[in-house]
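DATA CLASS: polypeptide
GOAL: derive structure tokens

***
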Amino acid sequence: MANKHEGQAVSWELRDGVIELALHRDPCNEIGSLTLAELEEFVAALPKMSEDTHALIIYSAMKSGFCAGADLRELYRRSEEMNRVDAVRGVRDYLERIHAVMNALDDAPLTTIAAVHGVTFGGGLELALVCDLIIADKMARFCFPELRLGLIPGFGGIPRLKRDMGNGVVRDLLLTGRSFNAIKAQTAGLVSQVVGEGEALRAARGTAAQLRKFDKATALAAKRFIKPIPREELKQEIEIFCDLFERPAVQAGLRKFVESTDAQPYLP
């Protein structure tokens, strides 16, 4: 198997026993059909790659941030082209596919590290939450802005946040749409380490090197004991998201986002 793969939205390579998955879709790694297809390709290759590796680092090559979440413009465009029944069916299919990817990453047979900076919103935060460790540079910000669209997070964020965090943090992120900076995220237990601006990937590589000293089978057993995948709640999340998506208020929220002239309309 090749040690390097270059995609249009994501790329990966094996370096010193570590898999590095880079997100590089302009402007801020929005997850649409292209990114999803390439992530599916990655998780299909992951079991074989994991045989000779002990860690996976997920990071962004874009200066704007880690990931701004779902590609809302693509979602709006496709929903406008369909009747309501077909639109909801398309959303359900998309969510089931992204959940399969997230679950594969969550359950990966090695230690996973998200190295984040800048915007880590919506689906981007959900992607970080599948990782065992989150290392953030001091400029990172975390947010679930879906409330502004009349939706809830749909990539598995609610069950995983509940798995990892106290109720106060979960409710704050979900019900207010406010963002957390890196220090607050670390204080709340969302982030394991905060580093200087631009230093997250370097710190993640250092952590991955440290992990090599430990027995991989033991680390995997510990991971699966302390980090079970909340599969039933994940299924419920899809159902709630699809029910909400049928509401006219959601289409209005998506239209407002798409027609916004702000450079980064996903920011608070």
